[in-house]
Task: structure prediction
Amino acid sequence: MSYMLREESFHMGTGNDGLRRIVQAGKIPAWLIQKYLNKWISCSYDLFGTDHSSSAHWAYVWGVKGRYDEPKNEKEADLDDINDYNRVLYHDEVAGLIARLNTALAAGVDPLYAPDIRFNRNIGKWRAEVTRKTASRSRSASMPIACTTSCRPPRIRRPCLRSSPMKRTDRAEGRWRDPLETIGEVRRSAINL
Result:
């Protein structure tokens, strides 16, 4: 298990470092990065499971599932809200990572943030409720908005990303290459060849 946890830690660190480099380069606008954060973080909230889950209740009782901060948490677990408790811990951790990304933003750019835990949910008590994504700073201050499309990335992403100056030079051929067209290529450095 320790080897697997070390490997997963490497994946998370690599992803977080990649995001930091993207933000620091300033080639992709922060508003577009925020739309992707809104989409994927809000989707990940649903991965914790439904609220008041009997499966989570019994998994906790049998010792299969726990709270993320179980070793240092002295409070008795609310067995009806195990999933939601871990979801809130996840939100707080992600908000901290995004706060670190904000240190790499250019001056004058609006800071990135984690979407509210109620935003864009498909399961649980917040299902189908649309909330203002900026409410992550104060969860109780969420206000309904009419349309979520302004908060999520556009369906056709490539033209928007291609319009930003993020192309790299292929040194071997001396020409510009679009990174979106080379995603499937094997990178020699990635597989240590």
In short: The first helix runs from residue 2 to 25. Helices lie at 2-25, 30-46, 54-61, 82-102, 158-162. DSSP finds five helices and two strands in the chain.
